[in-house]
C-alpha cells in the first residue's frame, strides 16, 4: 500500500471496472472514470497493489457535514471524507480495504467520516472496524432508476484517551 501516483490512474480505472462489473460500484459507471477518482476537495489518495497490479484504492477529500460537526465538534473546515474506496474481487478477504482505511485514519488528524448505501456489505465492514453510525438520510445523488438511496453516515473511531 502506498500513496497514489499519476501513473497509477490507468490501473485504478481497470480495478474500478472489475469492481463495477462484479458489484455495481459505483452504481453508475462514470463518463470519465479517471476524473471520478479525483473528487472535489481531494487531499490524499492511496492504492494497494499486488505483483504490480492495482487491487485497491481510497482517497480523502475535504467535506464539511453538519451531522459530523454536531457529533464530533470538529469545525467544518477540518472535516474530511473517505471517498472512492474499492478493492478488486480477487483481493478481497486479504485485509486490503482495512489497510487502506487505516492509512487514511492515521494520516487524517480529525473529523474523518464517510457514508455508505444502506444494505451494502460495507456497512458491516465499517462497523467491524469500529466506525460509529451518527446519521441515516437520503443520499445527495439519484440512482439510475430515479430513486434516492438511503445512506448511513459514519465517523472514524475515536483514539483512546490518555
UniProtKB/TrEMBL annotation:
<keyword id="KW-0012">Acyltransferase</keyword>
<dbReference type="InterPro" id="IPR000182">
    <property type="entry name" value="GNAT_dom"/>
</dbReference>
<protein>
    <submittedName>
        <fullName>GNAT family N-acetyltransferase</fullName>
    </submittedName>
</protein>
<dbReference type="InterPro" id="IPR050832">
    <property type="entry name" value="Bact_Acetyltransf"/>
</dbReference>
<feature type="domain" description="N-acetyltransferase">
    <location>
        <begin position="1"/>
        <end position="147"/>
    </location>
</feature>
<dbReference type="Pfam" id="PF00583">
    <property type="entry name" value="Acetyltransf_1"/>
</dbReference>
<keyword id="KW-0808">Transferase</keyword>
